[in-house]
Specification:
disordered N terminus, mainly alpha, 238 residues, Urease accessory protein UreF
Length: 238
């Protein structure tokens, strides 16, 4: 006899919300597959050349720009004002090329999220930022529209900060996909730590103001982004 689905708890303890799986899926039509997260420039510079150097690159990215993005996403999911968060994201993105990329990805994600999870907050952001809001802010609002809490938003942002680089490295270096995926899987404990720190920072920002949000940066990624934007031929958009 099949159990009545109406009597079942939608999530068992320890289960992952399906909405998080959808949002973090590389097949979600938000344009992320066209970007390498700085990996293309790092490969050309010789800093990423094998699984170990890829892990080092992703670890640095996760604890700098990944933490900053995750905290912004958590704050947006928690209901902090998106326009102010968008300005905060701008201030934390010194590279003009990265600012343009973030807004382009935010615009694409907003379009996809409004189709998948219609929500007035997404509509308001589209009206307030017609040229595109920063990706991390849109991600937080999309997560909230999907029913996720700030922790889910932070987890999605932290994961996206490294997953694109891992996928790109397979294409750029011809890495064994199993080894590349192992790099991503072994970052899971640090992903959880970064997401938890991001939620704590968002909670603090709700009480003390947005200046409490992390502003961790990776200057070499900014340099790489400007160099990459000037290349006449490249495999990825950023």
């Amino acid at each position: 006899m099949n159990p009545d689905p109406n009597t079942l708890d939608p999530l068992t303890p320890g289960a992952v919300d399906p909405a998080l799986l959808v949002l973090a899926d590389g097949r979600f039509p938000a344009g992320g597959h066209a970007h390498s997260g700085g990996a293309e420039a790092a490969v050309r510079a010789g800093r990423v050349h094998d699984p170990e150097s890829l892990r080092a690159f992703c670890t640095g990215r996760l604890h700098t720009t990944g933490l900053t993005s995750a905290a912004l996403a958590a704050a947006a999911a928690a209901g902090l004002p998106p326009p102010a968060l968008d300005d905060a994201a701008d201030a934390r993105t010194p590279s003009p090329a990265l600012r343009a990329t973030s807004r382009r990805l935010g615009r694409q994600l907003l379009r996809a999220a409004r189709a998948v999870w219609p929500d007035p907050a997404l509509d308001r952001l589209a009206a307030e930022r017609p040229r595109g809001a920063h990706h991390s802010v849109v991600l937080g609002l999309a997560a909230a529209a999907a029913g996720l809490d700030p922790g889910g938003a932070a987890t999605a942002a932290a994961y996206e900060s490294v997953s694109g680089a891992v996928s790109a490295a397979v294409r750029l270096l011809g890495l064994d996909p199993f080894q590349a995926t192992a790099v991503l899987a072994r970052l899971a404990p640090e992903l959880r730590q970064v997401a938890a720190a991001a939620v704590t920072a968002a909670d603090t920002a709700a009480r003390e103001g947005l200046d409490a949000l992390p502003a961790a940066s990776a200057p070499l990624l900014d340099v790489y982004a400007e160099q990459h934007a000037a290349w006449p031929v490249r495999l990825f958009a950023s």
